[in-house]
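stage 2 :: seqdesign
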């Protein structure tokens, strides 16, 4: 049982309340025992003093005491003596489990100041105190145990509907009809279950619309784009002007790659992140450019450790790097690019070329917006920096080493 759970909190709250009440009544019962003992002691002392004073007035002698519990004594002046709560004329001293009482004589001339009584020496009073104390503490212990068990039962019963509701919500499947337990109840739990049902059903509708949109984009847009690319590649004579043909090819590539990025961001499997090696991703991206355009001369200087890893998704990282490298090919005029990863920053830097020096290949053409989208999905920071001589993109990914330190 978790201490932060509702069941544990109810148990602690009710248990503490019952414990305080039990301790209060236990203390009240102990006080009742003490008061009863004081009343009995006061009555016995009054009887003994009255008997002694009557005999003194008639015989001028002190008769024998009626019990060994009584003794003649002067008025006590010790610090542990004080007036009794039920009789100001009686003094009491309590030490450990024993109590002593004293009352002064009313008649003057007696050879002592009053009568002292030891409660433990008086068998009836001592037996009453012992028996009642045993009964009291036994009843208190039994009441505490019963209170703890009943509190546990009550807390379990109160928390059970909430636990059933939480388990019902947890077991809901995205594609299954929403059935959450507790909607038939007429209390706050029923209201909460109904709210969960309404909200989850609305989310299911939104998920279905998202899946339909992804399906439509994947099937309805990819097919015409592929047909257009194949037609331009197989029958280039359909477009007489080379410039127009290159423009159509670039627009087709841009549209196709934009669709790829949007679909990648929409797919759930691309939102699973882990430690990904950086070097293989960069190698695949650079080899892909050479495979598509072998005529290009493009030098990329990699300042990346072979074992460097970041927290992300391999497919999203490939799209991100492909866009940034292709951007360097276009804007750098094929003069090369520097890619470095150090001190938690992944930097792509390329020189800027004049417009006439740029090759016809323009890269993916996603733009800064889609690049930011990819970086934000992986919880990376990204910064674009441009000067007259170079264009720089600074990524701040989550490093695998940092994640390992936090996990420890």
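stage 2 :: out
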């Amino acid at each position: 049982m978790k201490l932060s759970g509702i069941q544990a909190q109810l148990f602690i709250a009710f248990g503490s309340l019952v414990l305080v009440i039990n301790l209060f009544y236990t203390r009240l019962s102990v006080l009742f025992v003490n008061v009863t003992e004081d009343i009995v002691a006061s009555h016995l002392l009054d009887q003994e003093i009255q008997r002694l004073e009557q005999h003194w007035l008639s015989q001028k002698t002190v008769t024998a005491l009626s019990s060994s519990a009584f003794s003649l004594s002067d008025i006590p002046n010790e610090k542990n003596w004080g007036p009794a709560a039920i009789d100001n004329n009686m003094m009491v001293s309590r030490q450990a489990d024993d109590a002593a009482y004293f009352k002064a004589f009313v008649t003057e001339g007696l050879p002592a100041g009053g009568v002292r009584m030891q409660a433990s020496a008086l068998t009836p009073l001592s037996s009453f105190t012992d028996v009642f104390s045993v009964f009291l503490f036994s009843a208190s212990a039994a009441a505490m145990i019963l209170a703890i068990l009943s509190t546990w039962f009550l807390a379990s019963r109160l928390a059970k509907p909430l636990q059933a509701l939480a388990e019902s919500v947890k077991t809901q499947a995205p594609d299954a009809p929403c059935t959450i337990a507790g909607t038939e109840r007429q209390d706050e739990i029923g209201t909460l279950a109904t709210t969960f049902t309404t909200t989850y059903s609305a989310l299911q509708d939104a998920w279905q619309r998202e899946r339909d949109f992804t399906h439509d984009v994947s099937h309805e847009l990819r097919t015409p784009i592929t047909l257009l690319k194949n037609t331009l590649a197989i029958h280039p004579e359909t477009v007489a002007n080379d410039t127009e043909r290159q423009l159509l090819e670039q627009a087709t590539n841009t549209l196709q790659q934009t669709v790829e990025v949007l679909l990648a961001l929409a797919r759930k499997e691309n939102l699973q992140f882990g430690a990904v090696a950086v070097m293989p991703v960069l190698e695949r991206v650079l080899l892909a450019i050479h495979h598509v355009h072998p005529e290009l001369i493009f030098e990329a200087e990699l300042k990346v450790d072979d074992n460097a890893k970041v927290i992300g998704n391999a497919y999203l990282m490939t799209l991100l790097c492909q866009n940034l490298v292709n951007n360097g090919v276009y804007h750098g005029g094929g003069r090369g690019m520097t890619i470095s990863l150090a001190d938690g920053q992944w930097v792509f830097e390329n020189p800027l070329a004049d417009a006439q020096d740029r090759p016809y290949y323009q890269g993916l053409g996603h733009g800064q917006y889609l690049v930011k989208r990819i970086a934000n999905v992986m919880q990376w920071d990204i910064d674009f920096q441009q000067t007259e001589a170079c264009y720089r993109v600074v990524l701040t990914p989550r490093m695998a080493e940092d994640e390992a330190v936090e996990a420890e």
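stage 3 :: structure notes
- The chain has a mean pLDDT of 77.
- The longest helix spans residues 6-59.
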